[in-house]
Write a structure and sequence with these properties.
About 45% of the residues lie in helices and about 15% in strands. Strand 9 and strand 10 form a beta hairpin.
Length: about 425
């Protein structure tokens, strides 16, 4: 009896150790070929879609076996840093967001891919904004998988109840404010609940870019220019002046209210599709309305990158084959709600029969990315803290942006 208990205890410890060593991973079925480790942060409902692409690639040939390891989004870049600094085994290929590429390229821990591009992967096969977003100082560092811009979602039932056409989303800032007022009933239903935290990282720069402004240029922070100030004042007025939003909205408060049918319009990313579908809410999706004079929407992207530690030519060739296969077969990725960046998919009839994804692709031409600066995350943290303070009524718009500008400028290296 004691031996049985001891054996069970040992097995439990062993299982914990193995789980800790393996992290959050999904190894695809092997085909007997040489293993290539592929890291991705797709720990949400999009993970199974990428897993299917990997499995289909492994079935298509026998020389290499791509092993997909999914690392949770919140821990992804911490894990990447450990690997690329030699403190953990690095993958042969991984996904990197567009706003991270410059930082890692300047650290020389991911390699230029200009020589990697050949017959199977061609620049003209991809949307130009996606491709250009992976370049640093004229060199290519990534192959695009998608572009994910900010999107507009609305409750069709609440539109109909307010006398608005449920098949017609607002297309201008004026229409948006008018709709928001009509959709606010004074009984706990709001036209547009203004988030004070995420996803302001997509909403706020969209408004700034549409105003014709820039947040940083030539390493100089410019948060106090009129385009930036007006963008934040507009959002604050929706709360305190127009009163189409409640005050003191906390993290995900706008999303919770949207799912509850208490928030008629919201902004978020394409990754929300599966959650909205499962909720059963009768929603519509469209490109973000035009608030300013310039057509623009903030976007990020997923890209395939290769660490500089990968030297083997055969492995690089296998990665090229896999990335090319993933692009041409990214209709599976589109099923997660995303719009792949390769033309053969987003221009196809099959893709354009989908509900949300063609709306996402409509924003490709006006997609704009983060400022051209290293360490955008730490640099922008003071900005979004300032946005939060202004929208909570803790600071004036001008003071919040001035304080943020001083701190962001110090964070630029």
């Amino acid at each position: 009896m004691k031996q049985t208990k001891l054996l069970m205890a040992l097995l439990m410890v062993l299982s914990v150790v193995l789980a800790a060593c393996g992290g959050s991973s999904e190894s695809s079925k092997g085909n007997g070929g040489k293993d290539i480790t592929f890291w991705a942060p797709f720990s949400g409902p999009d993970g199974p879609n990428m897993k299917k692409i990997v499995e289909e690639y492994n079935k298509s040939q026998k020389d290499f076996n791509v092993k997909l390891q999914i690392v949770p989004q919140n821990d992804y870049y911490k894990t990447v840093d450990l690997a690329l600094n030699g403190k953990k085994d690095a993958p042969e290929v991984m996904i990197m967001h567009g706003d991270q590429i410059r930082t890692y390229a300047e650290k020389k821990v991911i390699q230029p891919l200009d020589g990697f591009i050949g017959n199977k992967i061609k620049k003209d096969d991809y949307h130009k904004n996606a491709w250009n977003g992976t370049e640093v100082e004229g060199k290519l560092y990534g192959v695009p998988l998608d572009i994910h811009p900010l999107m507009f979602y609305y409750n069709k039932d609440l539109f109909k109840k307010a006398g608005l056409d449920p098949e017609k989303a607002p297309t201008t800032g004026e229409e948006f404010v008018d709709y928001a007022k009509k959709l606010t009933d004074g009984k706990g239903q709001y036209g547009f609940v203004v988030p004070t935290l995420w996803p302001q990282q997509f909403i706020f720069p969209t408004l700034v870019y549409q105003n014709g402004g820039k947040l940083i240029e030539n390493d100089k922070v410019d948060y106090t220019n009129p385009a930036v100030v007006d963008a934040l004042q507009f959002e604050k007025d929706l709360i305190f002046k127009d009163k189409v939003s409640p005050e003191n909205v906390q993290q995900d408060g706008e999303l919770t209210m949207f799912l509850q049918g208490k928030n008629a319009m919201t902004f978020n990313g394409p990754w929300m599709m599966n959650q909205f579908d499962k909720s059963g809410i009768n929603y519509g999706v469209a490109p973000v309305p035009q608030f300013g004079d310039k057509e623009a929407v903030y976007a990020n992207s997923h890209n395939f990158v290769i660490p500089t530690s990968v030297k083997d030519k055969d492995v690089k060739k296998a990665i090229e084959n896999f990335v090319a296969f993933a692009g041409k077969n990214s209709m599976e990725w589109a099923k997660s709600g995303q719009a792949p960046a390769i033309k053969s998919v987003y221009e196809s009839d099959e893709f354009n029969k989908l509900k949300q994804q063609p709306q996402v692709a409509k924003s490709f031409d006006k997609a704009m990315f983060s400022p051209n600066v290293s360490n955008w995350g730490p640099v922008s943290d003071p900005l979004y803290k300032g946005v939060n303070e202004a929208l909570l009524g803790k600071k004036s718009v001008e003071d919040a942006l001035k304080d943020a500008a001083d701190k962001s400028q110090k964070a630029i290296k």
